[in-house]
Amino acid sequence: MDARGELMRDDGSEATLRTVEVARRSGYSVQQVRDLERLGVIPAAPRSVNGYRRYTQVHVSALRAYRALAVAAGPVPARRLLRDLRSSTVSDAAAAISALHARLHRERGDLLAAQDALRAIAAESEGASSDGLAERGAAEPSGAAGGVPVPTDAMSITELAQALDVRTSTLRHWEHEGLLRPDRVTSLRVRSYDLQATRTARIVAALRGAGYGVDAVRDLVARLGHDVVVASGIVDARLEQLGTRTVALLRAGADLADLIAAPHITTTHPTPPPTPGRRAQPCNVPT
Mind giving me the DSSP string for the chain? Predict the structure, then answer.
C-alpha cells in the first residue's frame, strides 16, 4: 500500500480490484458500478484471461469524482465531463474543470443580485406602507370624498423595461406566460403598470435572474403574490444549495486530478495461448 492508501503489488505496479471491491471503495453497488461503466462514466475495465473485469484505483477515483460532480453540475454534465477527460490534454481537462467553478461563481453572483433586489423591494414596500399611514392620518376629509382613491404613478412598458434593464419584448413574453399583468391596456394596446404590477415585475425579474425557469416563476408568483419576504427566503435557500454544490465540486478535485494524471487504460481482452494441436476457442466474457 502506498502513501495514499492505494494497493500496490510487490513489484510496485498497481494491484487490480474486483467489482465488489470497487463498489465498496466508491460507495456504489456492484450493479451500479457495471451500469456506470456501460454509460462511460468510468473507463471500460480490461479483462483477465478468464474474462473477469480488472479494475484499478483509477476506476475508484472516477466513480468518486462522478458522485461529487453529479451534485455539483448534474448527472448528465458529470458523465460528459468524465468521458471527455480521458481523451483531453492536461490543459484542456484543467480548463473544463475551471469552467465548472466559473459557472458556480456566476450563479452565485446572479443569486446575490436577486437577493439585493428583493431586499430593496421589501424596504421600499415598508417605506410606502409607513408613508401611506401617515398621509392617511393627515389627510383632510374632502380629500377622500366619495371614496375615490388617490391616483398613483404608473409606468409605461418602455419605462418599466428600462427600470428592470430588460427588453420590452421580455415584458410582453412574461405577460404571455402569465407572470405579469399590466394595470390596464388601452384601445391602442398601450400598457400601463401601476405600483403593484411594477412590484410583481421586479420580483419576476429577481427570480428569473436567480435561475428559476418560467414555469417555476409562474408557480411561485401565483403562490407568493406580492410577498417579497417569502421570495427572499426562496433565493436564500437556493444560495444554500449552491454552497452544497460548490463544496461537492471541491471534494471532487483530488479524484479529478488523479484521473487527469492517470495513463490511459487499455481495454484489450487477453486471449489464452492455444493448446498445441487444438484451435483456439473464443473466451466467454461474463457480464
Answer: --TTS--B-TTSPBPPB-HHHHHHHHT--HHHHHHHHHTTSSPPPPB-TTS-B-B-HHHHHHHHHHHHHHHHH-HHHHHHHHHHHTTS-HHHHHHHHHHHHHHHHHHHHHHHHHHHHHHHHHHHHHHHHHHHHHHHHH--GGGGGGGPPPP---EEHHHHHHHHT--HHHHHHHHHTTS---SEE-TT--EEE-HHHHHHHHHHHHHHHTT--HHHHHHHHHHHTT-HHHHHHHHHHHHHHHHHHHHHHHHHHHHHHHHHHSPPPP-----PPPPTTSPPPPPPPP-
Mean pLDDT over residues 61-79, rounded? Answer: 95
pLDDT digits (tens, 9 = 90+) for 235-269: 888 899 999 999 999 999 999 999 988 775 444 44
Residues 6+ apart with CB under 8 A from 215: none
For 146, what's the count of Cα atoms within 13 Å in the CB-facing half-sphere?
2
Q: 106-115, 180-189, 273-282: which has the minimum mean pLDDT?
A: 273-282
Tens digits of per-residue pLDDT, 159-194? 999 989 999 999 999 999 988 888 777 666 788 888
Looking at residue 242, its amino acid is: L
With cell 458529470, the residue in question is 78
Which 3 state secondary structure label does DSSP give 184?
strand
